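Sample log: Trafficking protein particle complex subunit.
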Amino acid sequence: MAIFSVYVVNKAGGLIYQLDSYAPRSEAEKTFSYPLDLLLKLHDERVLVAFGQRDGIRGIKFVVLADPRQAGIDSLLRKIYEIYSDYALKNPFYSLEMPIRCELFDQNLKLALEVAEKAGTFGPGS
């Protein structure tokens, strides 16, 4: 399962935070000799887009792009809201509607995404 990206959008529709968390697998370099035997496969990959908005912060939208098989997206959105309120809103140097530049927000969001990808869900004590 994978969570590809997290976006935070303000009231005016401006992007105030973006995190691309998915790194594609690196493949080893392959060498071929002539003639080449090629096999082409068609891959139909889909992405789940989840939107979250909490009542405490009017107008702020949290967007998560994830694999459709990823479980616990609603819990992840609640956790992102909690991280936003704890580390961005309580930061005395952060102004509403401005881009989020807070190291603790970054660190805790990355940790939450790792937990979500490994466990699939968040429990009440996370």
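Observation: The mean pLDDT is 77.
Observation: Strands lie at 3-9, 15-20, 48-52, 61-66.
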